[in-house]
Design goal:
The chain is of the alpha+beta class and 293 residues long. It has two helices and 16 strands. It has two domains: 158 residues, no CATH class; 75 residues, Sandwich (Immunoglobulin-like), CATH 2.60.40. The strands form four sheets. It has a five-stranded antiparallel sheet, with helices on one face. Strands 11, 12, 14, 15 and 16 form a five-stranded antiparallel sheet that branches. The protein has a three-stranded antiparallel sheet with strand order 6-7-8, covered by helices on one side. It is elongated.
Length: 293
């Protein structure tokens, strides 16, 4: 009985200390859990952005590889801006009416009305006539001048924070000479943290593109006031036959692979050769100065 009377429980100060220790341990545990949760969310968001970038990149690559030249449109890239790309491709399903080549126009443009979460849009223009309608002039994205519109990518940050990172680069400034397109995608679900941004760069070779020919020639003085012009060093990337147009001092003077130009008198003449392939694409030579006795 005496031993039972001597046993005592926790005192109030001891209980308060224990409670404080428990609160500290629980706070530390919750802080660690919160940090782990946030890190996990960041990792998941980054993986999601990488998946979105790959999916969008694959769709763009597939569309660009489906481009379709035609005699009336040998150069299928019609607009080659940093954020606005227009080209022609084969339609799916098959077009009706007189559009026997089954073509459509495809536009990919960046709707950057919210630069921190820009959207990549695909707009299409279809027709049933023999000839295609004019390319819509509006550069607004989206534009109501196109037949249809759909979102193919979002969370795009190419223009976030006042940056100006081109979505497409071409390597050539003339649309008719473009043979490849590089896609540069930047995505971020949390633009406030640039470390979470995912990027994708992929190059697409336009295997169906008809490229412009190259015009080259030689000129040799023959006899009195004659110059023999030879365009046999000209070439076409696809091996198409060429038509040759000769110009002297800016005026056309004859046609053909080899042309004998009879000058009205001796003197200095500026000679140029233009060549066109079967689709009408133009190649223009540098001007050469020929001096005739």
């Amino acid at each position: 009985m005496n031993r039972l009377r001597d046993e005592r429980g926790f005192t109030l100060p001891e209980m308060l200390v224990a409670a404080m220790l428990m609160v500290i341990v629980m706070s530390a545990t919750l802080s660690v859990l919160d940090q782990v949760t946030r890190l996990g969310k960041t990792a998941n968001d980054r993986v999601d952005m990488q998946d979105r970038a790959r999916q969008t990149g694959r769709e763009l690559s597939r569309a660009l590889r489906n481009i379709a030249p035609s005699p009336e449109f040998p150069a299928v890239i019609e607009r080659s801006g940093a954020y606005d790309l227009v080209f022609r491709s084969v339609d799916r399903p098959r077009a009706s009416g007189s559009n026997t080549r089954n073509l459509r126009r495809v536009r990919y443009c960046l709707d950057a009305s919210d630069p921190d979460r820009a959207r990549l849009l695909e707009q299409t223009q279809r027709w049933t006539t023999t000839t295609a309608p004019a390319l819509p002039a509006s550069t607004a994205c989206p534009s109501t001048s196109w037949s249809s519109s759909r979102v193919v990518g979002d969370y795009i940050t190419n223009r976030s924070g006042g940056t100006d990172r081109a979505l497409w680069t071409y390597g050539r400034t003339d649309s008719g000479l473009i043979t490849a397109v590089t896609v540069n995608l930047h995505l971020n679900a949390n633009p406030a943290n640039s470390a979470e941004e995912s990027s994708l760069e992929t190059g697409v070779y336009l295997r169906n593109q008809n490229r412009a020919p190259t015009a080259l020639f030689t000129g040799a003085a023959v006899g009195t006031s004659h110059v023999l012009l030879n365009g046999s060093t000209s070439s076409d990337p696809e091996g198409d036959p060429l038509t040759y147009f000769w110009f002297v001092n800016g005026a056309e003077v004859g046609r053909g692979l080899i042309f004998d130009y009879a000058a009205p008198a001796g003197g200095t003449y500026e000679v140029r050769l233009d060549v066109r392939d079967a689709s009408g694409l133009l190649g223009r030579s540098p001007t050469q100065t020929v001096v005739l006795p």
